[in-house]
Structure formats: C-alpha cells, structure tokens
Amino acid sequence: MKKLHIVGGGAIGSLVAAGAQKNGIGNACYPRNIVAMPTEALWQDGGSTMLQPPFNTPTVLDNSDVLVFPLKVYQLQQAITQWLPYLENTPTIVLLHNGMGGLETARSLLPDDYPILLATTSHGALKETTSSGKIQVRHTGLGATQIGLAKATRRLPATLSALTLTYPLQANAIALLERALPPVHYQANILTSLWTKLSINAVINPLTALNNMQNKRIAEAAFAETRHAICHEFTSVANAYGYDFNEDDVHEKVLAVAKATGENYSSMHQDVLYGRPTEIDAINGILWKWQRKRVSPFPRTPFW
C-alpha cells in the first residue's frame, strides 16, 4: 500500500499528514522531537483532524512509498543522511521547502539517478500551542502546490498524463499528494516555479522578520525602497541564469501575495520570534552568492 512518509514536525508537513489522514491515505510522521509534533489539525472550514502518533525512528520504505522532506534547506543534509540506510527500495523523495539549494544537498548524498520531485506550496500553516499545552497546526491560507521532476534535461513530459507513461511512480506520488492536500499542479519546468517562489520569499520573509509584522504590512510606503531593491536584485540574478523575469512584474506579484496572505506571519518571522535558525542563507543569501558569480556589477540589498 502506498504511503506518505513525512520527515519533521513542522507546520506544512503536519498539514500534509493531516490531509492524508483526513482522506484515508496511509501516512507516518518522523519528527525530531515527538513532543513538539501537533496532535490535531484545524481546517479553514471549521473542521479538524487528529493526527496519528509519530514515529521515533525511520523504517525501510517500499518502492511505491513517498518520502516528503518539508524541511528548511539547512536541515536537509542531516535528515537525508539519517534516512539513507532505509532507501534501498528507492521510494520517491519530495523536497518541499522555501529557498534554493536543497536539490544540490540531496544530489550530494543520493545516487545520481535517484527519483526526486521538487515542490513549492502557497498553502499557509501555523503551529500553535493552546492554553492547555495542546499543539495544533492551523490551515491559515488556501493555496496550491507546484511540483515537478528534478531532472536536468529539458525533454520532460509536458503533462501529468504523459508523466504517467514514463515516470509512473513519480506520477503516483503527485496523485497521492493531490489527494492529501489539493490542489497539486505538475510543472514540466519546476525550476521556474521555484524561482518565482524565491522572488516572493526574498521580499516578504526578511521584511516581516526584521520588522516583527504580518505579511500585509510589507506593502506600506515605508518599505517601498527595500522592496524595489530586492526585486531588482532578484531579477538581475534570475535573468543572468536564463530565467526571464520582469522587475515590475515581480514587484506586483510580491504585493499581491502579501495582500492575499495579509494576516499571516512568514516562516522566517516565526523563526526569529521563537529563536530558531532562519532560512535567510537559502533565500537572500543564495541570491547574493549567485549574483557574485554572474552579475557584474552586482546590486546590493540591506541584508548583505
């Protein structure tokens, strides 16, 4: 039986697990800290789902299973290394995180031909602790997940039905995620979607974290200069790497997302608030790293 195996106990991973549980899909969670794992998910329609008890240690997975890493980039090396002895049957791996650099980490640890899907989601999720000490995950914003094969070739199947013919196990993995937390959209060129998400995170995440505010406030005039500077930096780097982005379009997209998720707090804001390491190196940091290689003279933002 195909199952979703979810590494970590973060908000998005817990939401995927709850969606799987709600829709009758076999699932298992493997958090670093079992006591910090949510026990219940609260949905936007007012419903709730109890999560299954998590597991302490990994287990050998079947070829048809799906192993999801909804982790921060800096957490991936340790997490994948821990799972290496249990991947003998080559279950499909899904990397689901903000920022860039996760694929490079995975490729350095896994065989060259290991089946990997890259994904990014706009669903909003927030872990909360009630006054009684109960840990919950709340679905704070309806979104969508973009997913595709981590392949260097440009001759990838253009549609999900075509993918089913050539990469059936990966197509099944996408279908499983679609059942758990819809909608999930297959993208033949997933890297474009990841660059788009990077453009949004590069503005919203650091601004909300540095100024201790909700997403909607980045649209205020006080942050206009910094918004435009980051959008300019992003566009310069993306274009240098062969991705066609327009600076004004990027800025408008950032504002649209900030408005749509206005009441939410970014993941980086939450990390700073609770004293956790952030993803700044995989978001603004990686832009700075890449622009030094290909953009001359390269622009500078207040973060670097």
Automatic annotation (TrEMBL):
Ranges where the Ketopantoate reductase N-terminal domain occurs: 5-149
MF GO annotations: 2-dehydropantoate 2-reductase activity; NADP binding
Biological processes, Gene Ontology terms: pantothenate biosynthetic process
Catalysed reactions, semicolon-separated: (R)-pantoate + NADP(+) = 2-dehydropantoate + NADPH + H(+)
InterPro entries per the UniProt record, alphabetical: 6-PGluconate_DH-like_C_sf, 6PGD_dom2, ApbA, Ketopantoate_reductase, KPA_reductase, KPR_N, NAD(P)-bd_dom_sf
EC numbers: 1.1.1.169
Domain Ketopantoate reductase C-terminal, first and last residues per copy: 189-292
Protein name in the entry: 2-dehydropantoate 2-reductase
Organism: Alteromonas mediterranea 615
